[in-house]
Amino acid sequence: MGSRQREATAVVAVDRPRQIGSRPAPAPRPSMDGRRALANTCLVFLLAGTLAALGWAFATDTFRVRNLQVNASSNAVRQAIEDALAPGCPEVAPGAVQCAEGQLGPNELTLSTAEAQRQVKAIPLVKSATVKTDLPDRLRIDVVERQPEVAWVVGTQVFRVADDGVVIDQGSPNGLKVVIGQVGGDPVKPGDKVDLDVIKAAEELQDQLPATLGIPAKRIQYSPADGLAVVSDQDFVAMFGPPDNLNLKMAELQRVVQLAKDKKATLSFVDLRYKTPYFRTR
Fold it and tell me: Where in the chain is the domain with CATH 3.10.20.310?
């Protein structure tokens, strides 16, 4: 009644609009097809360069064998290997060969070291060999040589045989363990292999006959048909046959020798090839 009512007043706050900064539009990315085309182009250039390099490597003389180094003990082995792998090339030092431009060997990039090793090991004096390439133009051969231990006589020819039975070469029997004369059969030649059991039996006969029976083995012979035979003093001959059961045959020979002594007879021939020995006296 006397007082006046206040009118409600509404206050509205309005934010001022913010200024939005402008950003540069992103650069367009290359499409997937474009990237693939670029990669393929780079790959083509890489392959072309590789093929060109390989073509040059195979065609150039840079990688052809020019120098040969042979590590072997004997001159005969070195010469045989040099003749096999670098024919016609001069030796500038022991075991070192240098080939002139017109005598270069195969390209080392395509050279088969396994085949070269096979060629070297085909030499009878070589027991084992390792062939290695040393780029760009050197070939190195390391050799283990066979050593003669047995003389194998065929007629007037003396062949030297290694401990693995391989016939090495012709030479003197001096200093070798045993001398075996071949009677009949095909003559041996360097590179052939003789029966190791025959060699071992001949060595045993040479050692045991004088030691146990007092019979010196003046000559040991081998025949493919009749086996081993020993010729002793006064041309006494003992036929042992194949190299097996040698201890049994030695025991039989000892029995026959004792029997001849008991009868005061001189043995001239004993055949131990059969179950029952046969013998003759003078």
Answer: 67-145
